[in-house]
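Project outcomes to date are best conveyed with an example. Our students and postdoctoral researchers have been running inverse folding experiments weekly, and each run begins with a structure described purely in tokens. The record below, which covers 215 residues, was selected by the lab manager from last quarter's runs and is presented without edits.
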């Protein structure tokens, strides 16, 4: 006879948002990070990391991220504020070479202060959008804002923002026969608390789909 597994159960509607947040970040692992660069109202740079981030569609090429209302002051973050005004943004990526500097971009600065300068990251011009790319990222997605869905305006409440990728830039060393090489990319994801997760330990298993475009 096997011993019954005992599980704890929680009603999320009775939880503080911080408790629910910990369930999310402790369960959805690892999380890819979108380091999103935008332009401030005066034309200066803004850049910040978001680990609630995913792909949505390949044709058209759509990505989405989910910024929450600031828990510190109940205000919308600078990144969505800029996107709704400028209608564009750039997605940059986190690697083993840049994650410590990227971590600095999560610092809450006054609106208009440049996180590129704070973190010693390097802004470079984009080709389609006005927002700068992050030189230290080996991949860039230049995006045009598509739409968003809001779940509220109080601390801890979030929204989904989607963008259409209109230009992709990939460092030459990462690209081979139409594929991005994971070992050359060396991506880093987010865990719970202060954890960051490297992708250096992987397994392969054959998928059973008839059409495998991931090969």
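After processing, the design step wrote out the following sequence:
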């Amino acid at each position: 006879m096997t011993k019954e597994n005992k599980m704890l159960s929680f009603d999320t509607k009775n939880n503080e948002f911080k408790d629910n947040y910990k369930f999310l970040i402790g369960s959805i692992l690892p999380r890819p990070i979108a380091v999103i660069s935008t332009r401030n109202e005066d034309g200066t740079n803004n850049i910040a990391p978001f680990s609630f981030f995913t792909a949505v569609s390949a044709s058209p090429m759509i990505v989405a991220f989910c910024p929450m209302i600031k828990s510190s002051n109940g205000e919308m973050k600078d990144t969505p504020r800029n996107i709704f005004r400028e209608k564009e943004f750039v997605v940059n990526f986190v690697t083993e070479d840049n994650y410590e500097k990227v971590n600095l971009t999560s610092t809450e600065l006054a609106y208009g202060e440049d996180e590129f300068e704070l973190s010693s990251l390097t802004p470079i011009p984009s080709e389609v959008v006005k927002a700068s790319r992050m030189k230290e990222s080996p991949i860039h997605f230049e995006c045009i804002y598509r739409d968003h869905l809001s779940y509220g305006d109080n601390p801890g409440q979030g929204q989904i923002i989607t963008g259409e990728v209109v230009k992709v830039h990939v460092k030459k060393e990462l690209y081979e026969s139409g594929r991005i090489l994971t070992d050359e990319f060396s991506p880093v994801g987010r865990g719970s608390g202060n954890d960051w997760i490297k992708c250096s330990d992987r397994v392969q298993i054959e998928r059973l789909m008839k059409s495998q475009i991931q090969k």
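The chain has one domain: 30-198. The helical segments are 17-27, 78-86, 99-104, 115-119, 182-185. The training component of this project remains on track.
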